[in-house]
Amino acid sequence: MIKGIKGAPDVLPEDSGKWQALEAVARDLLERYGYAEIRTPVFERTELFVRGIGEGTDIVEKEMYTFEDRGGESLTLRPEATASLMRAYMEHNLSAKSSLVKVYLIGPMFRHERPQSGRFRQFHQVDVEAVGSPGPAVDAEVVALLHHLLEAWGLKGIQLHLNSIGDPNCRPAYRQAFVAYAEAHRSALCPDCHVRLEKNPLRILDCKVPTCQQIARGAPTISAYLCGPCREHFAAVRSLLDGLKIEHTVNERLVRGLDYYTRTTFEFLNPTLGAQNAVAGGGRYDGLVEEIGGPPTPAIGFAIGEERILASLAALPGPAESPTCTGVYVATAGSEAFLVAMDLVQTLRRRGLRAAVDLEGRSLKGQMRQANKDRYRYSVILGSDELARDQVTLKDMLSGEQHAVPLGEVVDRLTRLPERDYA
Ligand code: HAM
User: Fold this and answer.
1) What residue ranges define each of the domains in the chain, with the CATH number in brackets?
2) What does the pLDDT look like over 130-149, one tens digit per residue?
3) With CB atoms counted within 10 Å of each terminal CB, which end of the chain scores lower, N or C?
4) 223 C-alpha to ligand 1 centroid (Å)
């Protein structure tokens, strides 16, 4: 048997409803906030991600699914959506339609990470981007939207961590001070952090190795280095969030794993999830569009990991699910009755009901068993006797009551039954 890829799980029929419900809530709320869906291909030119996400990042260095296509071009399965969305934003000149473009994308992302609980190689994000405004009001609304969405899904105990990582004006001085500090502690850093020190030193701040964490705790902090405009921006974002009563913790070690961020960064954490506890993350990226060949364009966004939301919801105590009975099962005996039943179920489905007929040649008894197993609310029994009288037997599967109904009236009768019996 050929097995699926490790870290790329299947969503089975018994679980797909949860995914659909999750995404339906997201779509509804996003539309209310003025966001429109955008769908981009799952692959792009490799260069887009290398330039967008940054050469020294773990994603670009170690995690991309990159391949050469038959035309010899290097392509990559998207490890995230922001770079693709900004490519589409430029390519289709979306800024011409609106000065603030609000878009979202829901779909799979691909990263060759070591699979573990909460970390997959194919995972799914709800990605949200607001493009065109540099002001702190957008930062606050974007964070408030994410906060609202997590609440709408019913998540509990989620913590918001917030930081400002400055901009190209002030970050270099911070970086320099940080590197000098880290160099002084080089011998105590883990092997990965030795590499980070050369390529992406600020990532040392969120290394999970305890000795590195201890060193990170004593490191110079970004807040002392922020320039005036970055400081004011951050203060304004925080006071807007306070005004919205959105609790947050300033975490000066929140630098995020992608190079494109400027100023505001944030993550929502579920402390009960273990090592992979970020359910969503994002930030401002005022330099990204320029980096990939467009005009200077301020923007901010976030992405939510759908698997981690579902894991968080599964861990919450909730009422046991009691499946409801819905729809109509048409049980038949004989080939003539089967033909009539096929037509009947098609009509019922067109009228909006869930309906089924046996396609596997079961006995009448077997069909009734199946109707129970599949939790149909009503059954219609159609044998040769019924057919001869132009009637069917309509049975309420919950009460067991049954009575004869003229064949010509059964569709109307079923569609007139109280809606809640089908819901
Ligand atoms: P990210 O922090 O790399 O940001 O990913 C966002 C979320 O995706 C994470 O918080 C996590 O829930 C989920 N996630 C990431 N990697 C995995 C994985 N291997 N398995 C399961 N879930 C995962 C971004 O992707 C940015 N593009 C977010 C953004 C949008 N920033 C601005 N706009």
Assistant:
1) 13-170+226-314 (3.30.930.10), 328-416 (3.40.50.800)
2) 999 999 999 999 999 999 99
3) N
4) 25
